[in-house]
Amino acid sequence: MGFAGRGERMMAARASAPGKIILVGEHAVVYGQPAIAVPLAAVQATVSAEPGEPGAGLLLRAADLGETLRADAIAEGDRLYDALVFPARLALEALGEPVPDMTLVVRSTIPVASGLGSGAAIAAAIIRAVCGAFGVTLPRERLNALVYEVERRHHGTPSGIDNTVIVYEQPVYFVRGAPLETFRIARPFTLLVADSGQPSPTRVAVQDVRTLYEQDRERYGAALAAIGAITRRARQAIETGQVDTLGALMRENQALLRELSVSSPALDRLCAAATEAGAWGAKLSGGGRGGNLIALTAADRVGAVSEALYAAGAVRVIATTVGAQD
Ligand code: MEV
Predict the structure, then answer these.
(1) Which of 13, 67, 98, 163 qualifies as a FRET site for 234, CA 20 to 30 Å off?
(2) How far is CA 302 from the centre of its chain?
């Protein structure tokens, strides 16, 4: 089966992108402070670009839609436009191609609005798949810039950390506007990623922190700077293999995130349950208010801490080892 017209140059293509975890520094990173993030390969967005019938146009099929939609029938302003159509449009513009006869099949195991980078990963996978169908692999810098454009539609004022860690698929020490910086993980460490079951759009939490900051720059500016200092110490701890120190820094970071109003009773309960069960530290990860929490734990405490997280209300717990393949 081939593509019609110009589409004869096209081929079926498949691409994916991982989720992400912010270890320390979320929210402060929007204000120029550093943050540390790592890819989360346990969850992925995968997109297949498949040949379409001549004249079919661009069709979109997402696992959770249960139906195939024409891209030109999705209005700007619809969340599906931002999530699916806009990234495909950006890819076609980058290629200088008109809308092809193509079906994009989008699958994702990354829960939406949960702080794990679902929007950025789906956008990266769509752009890669569309470009792949034309035999093009975009340089990562270019892909990163395009996914950032999508993030701007989702979040308004994103720092760029989500698209960067997801596109480069490596641990990043991220400072807004600065060149990509990665770092050495001296000793692999285990994280439990626990879903609070409460979806929470990052945009709202980011806006609320902005409002607090505008109301009291001295107080909240100090909290954001303190988070930046924690991130710098966390990098040192990771580079020297001081895992228990990293845990203590995560606890300090969580207290400051609570002060910024982005924790929630459910997240606080999960953090307490994890540390009581022996985790070195626990904190929300991403925008907060809901979404996911991360708990840093010794490998032999994974079972006990997971059980405690489920008992405290987590709907899903994933164990991941950071730095294992480096
Ligand atoms: C979202 O994953 C991280 C935030 O810091 C927002 C951003 O950096 O754009 C909350």
Answers:
(1) 163
(2) 23
Alpha helices in 79-201 (DSSP H): 79-80, 86-95, 118-133, 140-155, 161-168
**Are the beta carbons of 48 and 250 closer than 8 angstroms?**
no
Q: Is 216 a catalytic residue?
A: no
CA of 276 to the centre of ligand 1 (A): 28
What DSSP state is assigned to residue 20?
E
Which strands, in side-by-side order, build the sheet including 189-195? Answer: 281-285, 292-297, 189-195, 316-322
Pocket of ligand 1 (CB under 6 A): 22, 26-27, 29-30, 115, 155, 158-159, 161-162, 202, 206, 286-287
Report the chain's mean pLDDT, rounded to a whole number.
94
Q: In 10 A of CB 269, how many CB atoms?
A: 16
Rounded to the nearest 10 degrees, the angle between the axes of helix 202-215 and helix 140-155 is 70
Which pLDDT score, from 0 to 100, does residue 155 have? 83
Report the predicted TM-score, pTM, of the whole model to 2 decimal places. Answer: 0.95
For residues 61 and 236, give the distance between their C-alpha atoms in angstroms, rounded to a whole number. Answer: 44
Pick the catalytic residue from 82, 101, 162, 195: 162
Answer whether residue 31 shows pLDDT above 50: yes
Residue (of 44, 45, 47, 23) closest to 35 by Cα position: 23
pLDDT at 101 over 70: yes
